Amino acid sequence: MALNGNESPILSPACLSNEDELIIEKRIGKGQFSEVFRARILASGQRIALKKVRIIELADSKARADCLKEISLLQRLSHPNVVRYMGSWVANLELFIALELADAGDLSAMIKHFRDKEKMIPEPSIWKFFVQISAGVNHLHEKRIMHRDIKPANILVTAEGKVKLGDFGLGRYFSAQTMSAHSLLGTPFYMSPERLREESYNFASDVWSLGCILYEMAALVSPFYSPTINLQNLCERIQRAMYPPIESEVFSDELHNLCYCCLNISPDDRPTTADVLNFATEMHHRTLPNNETPEV
Length: 296
Hints:
- The chain has two domains: 7-100, Phosphorylase Kinase, domain 1 (2-Layer Sandwich), CATH 3.30.200; 107-287, Transferase(Phosphotransferase) domain 1 (Transferase(Phosphotransferase), domain 1, Orthogonal Bundle).
- 34% of the residues lie in helices and 18% in strands.
- It has eight helices and ten strands.
- It has helices spanning 61-75, 107-117, 123-142, 193-196, 204-219, 231-239, 253-262, 273-287; strands at residues 7-9, 22-30, 34-41, 47-54, 85-91, 94-100, 145-146, 155-157, 163-165, 172-173.
- The strands form three sheets. The protein has a six-stranded antiparallel sheet, covered by helices on one side. Strands 7-10 form a two-stranded antiparallel ribbon. The chain has a two-stranded antiparallel sheet with strand order 8-9.
- Strand 5 and strand 6 (94-100) form a beta hairpin.
- Helix 3 (123-142) runs antiparallel to helix 5 (204-219), helix 3 (123-142) runs antiparallel to helix 8 and helix 5 (204-219) runs antiparallel to helix 7 (253-262).
- It is globular.
- It starts with 6 loop residues before the first strand and ends in a 9-residue tail after the last helix.
């Protein structure tokens, strides 16, 4: 399937333009109004991820605005741990967004692999991944963007083991004058208490989600998961920060403590994303084997 004709580029000519023909290879994801395909640029042979949004089905004007908001957010981001934006256009009432392809699955698949094998992720590997996740989130926050839906399924992994933070459909730009938001969106297992209470929240809400991610990489399960849990009980556990300690004794006190600090009920008492990144970087360096050097 080639994309050509009746296409109008809507962003910078420095990005992938309507003149590039793409061959659709396979569908790799699906959402309520969108699908994601692996595609290949004919001119270069490079493989990309192509997100197709059915604009005609977005009858709600806010949904359409959110869709365009995602593009404006992607334009502002340039970081090795954030999925790279490569261009977009509209054709036949469908919006196409070309993105960097992370071709080795996501963090949720990696966690499931270890859980199924009944093996723990080694702590050096946890820090190797977590420092990249923290770096990506910190870049968003430096650009005044909150992700608002940080979860293992939105943390993509390349074949080289690089982490790429993706899916900014729920992201929101914050001007210097706007430090909080009011909306209940995202994934309940990784939502902060203030969001569940539908209170005003800010960047500290993403830090809570980072704490959930770090915990899950060590415990191989969400801190608030239970086989018999229902939504009401889940919300109660999150709002009271009730979660079992990580059972394994093989993880450092530093890992336990960072989880505890990020999963603080009070947003003001959580570390900043920069604090989390600095601490994760130190732990990544400290846990490297003697014959390895940290990646730049």
